[in-house]
Amino acid sequence: xxxxxxxxxxxxxxxxxxxxxxxxxxxxxxxxxxxxxxxxxxxxxxxxxxxxxxxxxxxxxxxxxxxxxxxxxxxx
Amino acid sequence: xxxxxxxxxxxxxxxxxxxxxxxxxxxxxxxxxxxxxxxxxxxxxxxxxxxxxxxxxxxxxxxxxxxxxxxxxxxxxxxxxxxxxxxxxxxxxxxxxxxxxxxxxxxxxxxxxxxxxxxxxxxxxxxxxxxxxxxxxxxxxxxxxxxxxxxxxxxxxxxxxxxxxxxxxxxxxxxxxxxxxxxxxxxxxxxxxxxxxxxxxxxxxxxxxxxxxxxxxxxxxxxxxxxxxxxxxxxxxxxxxxxxxxxxxxxxxxxxxxxxxxxxxxxxxxxxxxxxxxxxxxxxxxxxxxxxxxxxxxxxxxxxxxxxxxxxxxxxxxxxxxxxxxxxxxxxxxxxxxxxxxxxxxxxxxxxxxxxxxxxxxxxxxxxxxxxxxxxxxxxxxxxxxxxxxxxxxxxxxxxxxxxxxxxxxxxxxxxxxxxxxxxxxxxxxxxxxxxxxxxxxxxxxxxxxxxxxxxxxxxxxxxxxxxxxxxxxxxxxxxxxxxxxxxxxxxxxxxxxxxxxxxxxxxxxxx
Lengths: 76, 512
What we know:
The complex is a heterodimer. Chain A has three helices and no strands.
């Protein structure tokens, strides 16, 4: 597999793994998530906002690095 | 009648019709009509993808769910971001390099064109029609409430306007309508967020403390386990949305409106940014802000239930924080949202029919551009008309559920076929057609045997398949069926299909 493609798959798998772990924990052990998010609603807001921002900024950064033009870029 | 709503609606319609007339000059070729000549940059196209995704169901439905079920709704917000990540990292660039106008172009690149295009067009049309009905019913209900006109007339107005946009202006008009609508809805999200924060001295802690104090569920809104009563439904939903989103024809078609794969990547990048921004506002402020504010307004409740159902809480909120003028503005933005999404859907459906079915299957590539465009314009009115008739039939169905069906079908058909065609050498034509059909038929069968159709529509006492969402079964089943059929396929065509993989790979991933 081309190096650039491998790198993209690595990042995708990383993001997908986080999502899958979260979905499984929320499904089978919601109390674990509730304890982690606690102790109170205000703390939850901060945790969620930071997690969301990190998630999105990561995607953006990776997107920028993975969208360099290639020499064989066609323009059909 | 709300004067603000009528004014904003009139301005929107005049502006978009003017754009449509101007765009019609550049829509005389198939490339102009289907792909806007690839003239849009990554930023503009990213805003348009944001518009395609941020439908009325997203805004009204998610706010309603956060209001009533709290934190479980986080998956409605996380799942699309995973879907966009799949598009960005695995699909956008190769998809843009291999295709011209439709999903069928990409999937049939190295496979037998005719059967593969027929399959791709069929699944695209099923998905488009399901989603179209959702949008039309939403538009009809909204206009009924806002302007006091009856449901059927409202659907006809929405359908008529969108068919004019698409048939005259093609992808150019559809994209600009989407950009205007996305700008309006992002501005609306920001305005609502600021108004809620202002009310609580810009303190999230104060909003959440008020929710705990006043909302019926109180602190439970900040825990998981309120929305999904069984594990299967939650996991099935978590599968359907990201995979389904990555196979939605109207979103994928947008990747052809940019000049190259770099701009296709940038489109998804900007879409991720704007959709993520709106999701943060929804999750952190608007949803819980609604739960904190509405209990102070007893007039929006009747017998402890919100008037109009939970889907209306966002509109009740706008009236509570901004008065009837702001309510009229936001309502009209939501209607504009529906018009824009419908335009994109009709265009995707019409192109699947005219480009994949008519031009490349029935006419075997012998039709000229004029003939193909004539068929496209006819199919716009046929698909739009069919959508309107189905909306009349499904007037009283749960539209949020029907929207999830479109994602379920996409996750079990378009997505597995597309991702395997890009990355798996062993995929064969027979694998796509038979394996993909297994995905489509199993999804439809389980939906019919499930509680929504078997019990609610057909009147049986218990459902044969006990769950509403089948994607957790049907999507892996489709992957397995495609893999099995392709692996067992020893035909001459199968050898040709596999032999074409290297050439496709070189084009798709353009090594330097």
